Amino acid sequence: MNDAHWHLVINHFPIIIPVIGSLVLIGGFVLKSDVIKRTAYVLFALGAILAYPSKYTGEGAEEIAEKINGVTKKMIHNHEEIAETFAKLSYLLGGLSLLALWTNWKQKSFANIVGIIVLVSAMFALYYAKQTGTSGGEIRHTEIRADYNSTEGAVPDGNMNQTGEGDDD
Questions:
Q1: What is the pLDDT of residues 120-136, one digit of tens each?
Q2: 161 in a domain, yes or no?
């Protein structure tokens, strides 16, 4: 497997894990469960750890993507800039989560405040996760680009008529 393939395999984890972690953390606050909160903190730390290989494999994926027709350096640069911000926010979220895990484990009086800070930080990270995923998806999925024209590049199937319906006759 080349770096582009590895990037495609790994890059979804740092995006999906904070979504799950946020839901788990909200559940921990609603149910007032320290165990559930700790689970969320570990998930955020895992997401931060996986942000590194995603970013690392992105460099090699860039070299490959630059050679693909229809992929511009501007698209790649835009994705790279957003992804770098997301990676930094992921690392921050992971660090704050480890602090929250410690404060929760030691039953510090300010543990819930740190937990709320983690949740707010997760919301910022999730915004950039969405932006990173969208900008990365636009590199290879022309159908999600803002300038997508559904009539360009369409290759009709031999069994399809002009309306896109199959000929049953």
A1: 999 999 999 999 999 99
A2: no
Q: Tell me the residue length of the chain.
A: 169
Residue owning tokens 């992921």: 90
pTM (two decimals): 0.83
pLDDT at 76: 93
Alpha-carbon distances of 59 from 48, 72, 135, 168, rounded to whole Å: 18, 15, 15, 48
Q: How many structural domains does the chain have?
A: 1
Rounded CA-CA distance 21/113 in Å is 17
Angle, CA of 115, 16 and 82, to the nearest 5°: 90
* pLDDT of 156 strictly over 50: no
Looking at the predicted structure, is the pLDDT value of residue 38 above 70? Answer: yes
Quote the domain boundaries for residue 46. 3-144
pLDDT value at residue 159: 45
Is residue 111, in this structure, part of any structural domain at all?
yes
State how far the Cα of 73 lies from the Cα of 82, in Å rounded to an integer. Answer: 14
**How many Å separate Cα 161 from the centre of its chain?**
38
What three-state secondary structure class fits 160? strand
User: Is the residue at 17 inside a domain?
Assistant: yes
Q: Sign of dihedral through CA atoms 50, 55, 56, 57? A: positive
